[in-house]
Specification:
Distance between the termini: 7 Å
CATH topology: Archaeosine Trna-guanine Transglycosylase, Chain: A, domain 4
Order of helices and strands: EHEEHHEEE
Structural class: alpha+beta
CATH superfamily: Hypothetical protein
Number of helices: 3
Shape: globular
Largest sheet: 6 strands, mixed
CATH class: Mainly Beta
Helix content: 10-25%
Number of strands: 6
Strand content: 25-35%
Length: 132
């Protein structure tokens, strides 16, 4: 059973749940490990989306993902969109998605049916009624 979630601005949660992005960058370290729900924050600006596209285009090995990336208006926000296993927290990772200073390494990520849910900072407890 999943009891914790992490909130991330789109389109990064989409990249995680579709298996492209194996590491979530944070300024803080975590000792927690285990299953985690991926929450898509309510907020997302056009700049957030464009920055992601620019990042993908700046890495030759990631350029192909731009063609698969949904349009901004098609990305769900304000709820749980996926799940994964947090397996490590590191200061270095081979993925081009790692920008540090800490990488929260995720494995077995997959999308789940959207469930509206308010987000919070850090790893937060899933509210009652949200079951994965």
């Amino acid at each position: 059973m999943i009891s914790k979630a992490i909130s991330i601005r789109q389109p990064w949660p989409w990249l995680i749940t579709m298996g492209y992005k194996p590491v979530e960058n944070r300024t803080w370290e975590t000792l927690w490990r285990g299953p985690v729900a991926i929450h898509a924050s309510q907020g997302m600006t056009r700049g957030d989306y464009d920055d992601c596209v620019a990042f993908l285009l700046s890495h030759p090995s990631l350029r192909h993902i731009v063609d698969a990336l949904p349009k901004p208006e098609d990305l769900p926000r304000g709820g749980i969109v996926g799940k994964a296993h947090l397996v490590a927290c590191t200061r270095a990772h081979e993925s081009p998605f790692f920008t540090g200073p800490f990488g929260h390494v995720l494995q077995s990520a997959e999308p789940v049916p959207f469930q509206p849910c308010k987000g919070a900072l850090g790893y937060f407890k899933l509210p009652q009624g949200v079951v994965l």
